């Protein structure tokens, strides 16, 4: 899609791939083997998602992951935009942003590996669980583990 919003509420047995140039992506109440979401300019909202892997990239726009469970990995790349986890989790999490905050709560302990050139970092000092690598040039990193 070049210009416009995409809303998806249908599960798939294989891979779901959504790509927009300008517009928001909203995916809710979905299960899939793999999700691959790309947006140049626009927000992405994911809610009540179950998958093996989730990959999303974008230039400008915020990303919300609410009740998103990936059995294997979540991989996020953003140029400008905030990333918020709200009860999300995966065996491994990788986030890279140039400008934007990474905040919220995960469902299980991780080996947090945060890096920010100019922002504040607040993460639990846990050593169990999978990797959670978060890198941002300009932005704060504030993550917790839900109790």
Ends distance: 40 Å
Oligomer: single chain
Point out poorly predicted stretches.
none
> Helical stretch count?
0
Apparent shape: globular
- Using DSSP, what is the number of strands? 11
Structure, briefly:
The protein has 147 residues and is an all-beta fold. The protein is built from no helices and eleven strands.
Task: Give a verbal description of the structure.
The protein has 147 residues and is mainly beta. The chain is 0% helix and 72% strand. It contains no helices and 11 strands. Strands 1, 2, 3, 4, 5, 6, 7, 8, 9, 10 and 11 form an 11-stranded parallel beta sheet that branches. The radius of gyration is 14 Å and the shape is globular.
List keywords for this structure.
single chain, mainly beta, 147 residues, 11-stranded parallel sheet, globular, 0% helix
Helix-strand layout with pairing:
Blueprint: E1 6-8, E2 15-22, E3 25-41, E4 44-60, E5 63-80, E6 83-99, E7 102-106, E8 111-116, E9 121-122, E10 131-138, E11 141-145
